[in-house]
Amino acid sequence: MNTEVNHPRFARMYPKLAAWAEEHGAQEHRAESLAPATGRVLEIGAGHGLNFPHYPDTVTEVVALEPERTLRDLAREAAPKARVPVTVSDGVAERLPAADASYDTVVCSLVLCSVRDLPTTLAEIRRVLRPGGHLCFYEHIRSHSRGFAAYQCAVDHVWPHISGGCRVSRRTDRAIPGSGFTMKHVRHFRFPPGRNPAPTAPFMIGLAVPE
Fold this sequence. Notes:
By secondary structure, this protein is of the alpha/beta class. The chain is built from 6 helices and 7 strands, in the order H-E-E-H-E-E-H-E-H-H-H-E-E. The relative contact order is 0.16.
């Protein structure tokens, strides 16, 4: 499998878009989602390293995978500023470069919307988690409102082509417990709040463990 993901225009644009979100609440979301992380951590789709400052002291090491070259280079620049040791590497979610049962925590932040094969990704996460390990997630999902979900499905005819493969109508909240995980905690919310929500507005933050 080719590990290279090439979205240069999106990669150049994303840090600017993400900066607005960070200033309006995404920093708090990241801290909330990472609070349960412990031990050796595998972060999938690290982007340009926005999670790095939010890892708690219970984490001993982070291996951060990012297959998009431009974002990976930015993540490597951010890694030395983290409070915990962070190593940034290439790698795709569908074939994680890790041994079975080798991580205490897997972190997914705004990435499961864009993986090419979600069931395979979740199976890989289960494979690399140690017994008693857990998955920390912060993801946008398909709305539970039928009308808004129909809007998201329509948007998805165009959205992945301009947003690095992101799919706003993906049912990630159903896929996780449908792939051999038990949801220990999940919080649903809309972000950013407002009368005219973005197609990415339905969000969830939570914790899941392999069954």
